[in-house]
Amino acid sequence: MPVNDRDFGLVVGINHYPGFEDLSGAVADAEDFDSWLVDTNTGGGVLPENRRCILSSVDSRKPVQEDVDLALEQIFKRIGNDQVRRFYLYFSGHGLASSRMGADLCLAIWSHIRRNAALNSEAYYELLAGTGRFQEIVCFLDCCRVRVANSHGMNSTLGRPKPDDLSGHERRMIAYSTQYQNVAYEAENEVDSEYIRGYFTRALMEALRGNAAQTGGGVPARRLKQYVENRTRKLAEEDGQLQQPEVDSNFASGDDPVFGSAIPSRVVQVTFSSDRISRKIDVVGPDDVVVDTLTSSNGSMPLHLGAGLHLLVDPTDNKSVSIREGDNHVSF
Fold first, then answer.
1. Which pLDDT belongs to residue 300?
2. What's the CA gap between 219 and 67, in Å, rounded?
3. Cis peptide leading into residue 63 (ω within 30°)
4. Which of 15, 99, 111, 287 could disulfide-link 19, Cβ–Cβ 3.0 to 4.6 Å?
């Protein structure tokens, strides 16, 4: 994937809460997403200077709101009066929810006495949307959404006299790691007990790196939503926990944005009969669209497929064979 200079992003990861309970995997989760964001091979292709990554450190009592707002101000200055394609907002850390919509993203100084030291995600979304500068806004918020009495996230210190004339037309995806009034979990990796990660971000990165990719490469928004919802729930259930993400999107089903360019991690071995050798074979995806055309060969050949039912179709005789979820090998 080439560098995309029309995409921007802000990544925040907080492990260290001097007045509360530290987390173990939030910074690693943020670093992982940030590495995908600037990856020009199969990732987001965002210019490093077009994004800001803010991470907590031991005893720093940061980040605070000023760090986040300054990063956004710098991004807005880089964009100027242009309208660009996409803005990514990623947060991993403690979180609350004072209402059914949105989440309050706890800053490093959050404590039971500093219970308003959090960012109101809805207000920050409205700030981004109100600029009119982004055709798409994509938010991934890996945090709890529990209620705490008399705790409310803060609006940004940035603002505009009025919404821009271009605002109100942006498309969006807002993915919360858990439902309202529920918690989000992090857990040890089954291979390395010192490698702690959040279920939601683990599912998200699996999806973006190929598990939810379409056959032609890249991850459509609808597949990302489906994979993250199902995989996060499954990861939590395997550890005896309950966590169900909530993904809100207004992307049209026939006009999905595609994230990155990873090829599917699902591989199916295909063996062709002798009378089909050297023929052109169409690969038809779940939407009844030809997603690839291959030349059949002798022996078994690997085929990278996205999720869902696929067909191999031989235009010579119009015969076909189905490849279903879970199939590792088919003969045609």
1. 86
2. 31
3. yes
4. 111
